Amino acid sequence: MSGTIKKIDPESVEFKEELEKTIKFTDKVCAQFGFVYNPDPEINQGIQFGLTRNKLIHGKRYCPCFFVTGNKEEDRICPCKPALEHEIPTDGVCHCQIFCTPAYAASQLKNEEIEAVVHQHSRGLSAEECQILLNKSDIDSDELTALIEARTLGMVDFKIVDVREWMEWKMGRIAGADHLVPTSSFFQTLNEAAIGKDEHIIVYCHVGSRSAHCQRILTDMGYTNVSNLAHGIVSYGGEIVRG
Questions:
Q1: Is the preceding omega at residue 79 within 30 degrees of 0, hence cis?
Q2: Which one is the CATH code of 126-241: 3.30.70.120, 3.40.250.10, 3.40.50.720, 1.10.520.10?
């Protein structure tokens, strides 16, 4: 097995010299197309290493996230056509994640700042940060705790919907939960809850699976802003109400 592996020594003079050329190449791509690097330097370094390896082995800087097949129509040479024509214009970032639009990079930095705030409890969320969190498909315990605190301060509005059964609700529910909409009578109780389709909704259950299913149903029904508490109430570190 080891005899078939093409080994490139990243400490070799050859690799280091080619790596310098690759870095100048990716710098040039950014300048030419108005891209910026990913805010995560480890991603950029990993891709630059992969491009360098492919240049030394195959003679061209093929995208390291794809197989090099020898088929000129399929093999991606950086910066590849799909990235330039579809991925970056649509998603703000290429498949390999190294090249981004300035807007995408800024949003990533903002998300990292929010993550630091909610997990280190260094300060409260701003109104803008609340909206960014509510646009996430999945949120965690610390994020929900921070959002509930912000809602108490009148900075944001959303509904927390428990999709477990009545017995589970009585045994313990998240303080601030607005509605019980059990999966066993989901559509009837959802109608009774009278939640607007444009309201922000956070659903939760015991471990996150039932609520993820309800999230998909709500989205299919036209509800536009539905988040799921990943891992459910068992992961929640905030206040629990019983009875």
A1: yes
A2: 3.40.250.10
The rounded distance, in Å, linking the Cα atoms of 52 and 15 is: 7
Structure tokens at 82: 């799909």
The number of beta carbons lying within 10 Å of the beta carbon of residue 150 is 21
- The pTM of this model reads 0.65
Are the C-beta atoms of 105 and 39 separated by less than 8 Å? Answer: yes
pLDDT tens by residue, 94-127: 999 999 999 999 988 888 888 888 877 768 889 9
What is the full DSSP assignment across the chain? Answer: -GGGS----TTSHHHHHHHHHHHHHHHHHHHHHT-EE-S-HHHHHHHHHHHHHHHHHHSS-B-TTS---S-TTTPPBSSPHHIIIIIHHHHSB-TTSSEE-HHHHHHHHHHHHHHHHHHHT-SPPPHHHHHHHHT-SEE-HHHHHHHHHHHHTTS---EEEE-S-HHHHHH-EETT--EE--GGGHHHHHHHHT--TTSEEEEE-SSSHHHHHHHHHHHHTT--EEEEETT-GGG--S-EE--
Assign domain 8-100 to its CATH architecture.
Alpha-Beta Complex (3.90)
